[in-house]
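Practice set, problem 2.
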Amino acid sequence: MIKKLLPIMLLVLSCKTGQESKVIDTNPVDSLKQHSVIDSDYITTRNKYVRYFHSLDLNSVDWENQNDSTLVKEETALLELESKLKQLLINTKFFEKEKSKINLVTLFDDYGFGLMDGLVTDIDTLKAYCTTIDIFSDFFKKVKLNDFNNLSTEELELILNKALYYDAHITIFYNQKFSTENGNIKYGLLSYLGQDLGITPWILYTISKFDNKIYIIEQRVKVELDLIPECKLLLDNILSKSDKYLDKYYQTGELDTSIDLNSMKFEDFAYKKYRDCFQEKFPQSDKYENVEKQMKQLESILE
């Protein structure tokens, strides 16, 4: 059932993907150069540690003891990787020697493993993530994406969820592309973040490529958004048909032969139609100007 979650949640920059096996094919994502020496050193070191910690028997680790030798080794490895990232990203926006931390949670093949390599920094109301083009392309090398300047909503959503989250899901409701004076493309993404399907977006993201770096910036929407009546009506109408067919099936065991419930997947279908409607109708909303202004403020930070 589609539910609206209360927007009270810790925001984490994480996701379920493997450092090596789920790490964007350089062919569709522009004509990216070969890995620089320093980027390659980071990637090689990270992969070495991933192989090592994945080879260990997790049952032998004393998770309650911070002085456990294996946990100490992991912490030391993460600090080494963080140091290498700080060398790579020292001249980037948002970099702060003490505040900027490695985005990886763990090197064990365990819950929380597989975040995209980079530095994340909390600054006032912003959460900013940065990585190099080389690390970004290496991480996603098995995924086929369009050129960065022509990413679809589905691809942008894939990037956010593959790169940033392991215990929550981002759903994009409205996607707006900005072109800057120097030709850079940035995406403003009005989204919902939660562990269930929500119907009212409440958080903004920007994804941009600037000076051979990839930036993802996160900020809560400053205005409270309302449901768009036409879209909510569309959602309810589709779901009411789902309820009707399911009620008949549960009562009689008979399916209406005009509809295949299994292939239709009513809730997924309804949710997609609702999001398509939101993308179309939101620019006519009385809150659009406020959100667009906030998007432009975020995308102008890197200029």
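Problem 2, part (b): a different protein.
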Amino acid sequence: MDDMISFDFTLDNILSVKAPRDTDPDTLHEAVRDKLITLIQGKHECFMFEGTFEEDSND
């Protein structure tokens, strides 16, 4: 029997990128991803524990 469960976390940070006022937000994903990478590399991310999940073993 496997004694492993899943621990669920969410990332609790707001990422802000500069762009012209009329920019489509869907075009900013790469800039936001780069900002997130920088945040994580600097160890400034904030993970919030949400709970645990156990798979049903009655299958």
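Answer key, part (b): The chain has one domain: 6-18+25-53. The mean pLDDT is 92.
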